Amino acid sequence: MASIEKRIAKNGDISYRIKVSLGRDKNGKQIIIRSDPIRFDKGLGKKQVHGVVDYGKWVMGGLFMELMADSGKAICDHFGKKITFLNVLRRMSVDCDCAGTSAAEPVIPDLGMMASTDILAIDQASVDMVYNLEDPRKNDLIERIESREGLRQLTAMKELGMGSSQYELVSID
Fold first, then answer.
1. CA nearest 72: which of 60, 83, 61, 56?
2. Contacts of 156 (CB under 8 A, 6+ apart)
């Protein structure tokens, strides 16, 4: 992922990342948990994250989740402690943003926002909030996460030493 880092370095030395976990923005655009190196480089970087460069095809499942973690690590290594992560768990749908306007309508209630300087902790907390939700509407979303091996991204991040899966939620109502 060194080429992604080099391209980012040209854009400045401070970055911020807003991750919207499986939701839609106010314009209806659907967004999923995603490592933002894709946003930094729409060409080669996106192809690397999706496996095209190394595997000759767009990969899915656990391997894709590992590539997402790898690319996220490249960004975190480059910027070091100059990153704060924000997760907005709002209007969550089972579909990927690639579904566009044909994405399923969100049914999960808004769960709030999170902020952290630990990428793994915030992602683990976000997933835990979905799993711990006492609402049967979560079942389709959980099935989608599991059928796409989405939890592999968390274990890959832990293996790469990207943070801690332990966290403390502090409410600032």
1. 83
2. 65, 66, 68, 69, 70
The Cα-based distances of 21 to 35, 44, 89 in angstroms read 11, 24, 5
Q: What is the DSSP string of 55-101?
A: HSS---HHHHHHHHHHHHHHHHHHHTT---EEEEE-SB-SS-GGGGG
Distance (Å, whole) CA 87 – CA 95: 17
Q: What is the pLDDT of residues 132-162, one digit of tens each?
A: 999 999 999 999 999 999 999 999 999 999 9
**Integer Cα distance of 159 and 173 in angstroms:** 34
Query: 108: helix, coil or strand?
Result: strand
pLDDT higher than threshold 50 for residue 23: no
CB 29 within 8 Å of CB 46: no
Q: Which uninterrupted H or E stretch holds 107? A: none
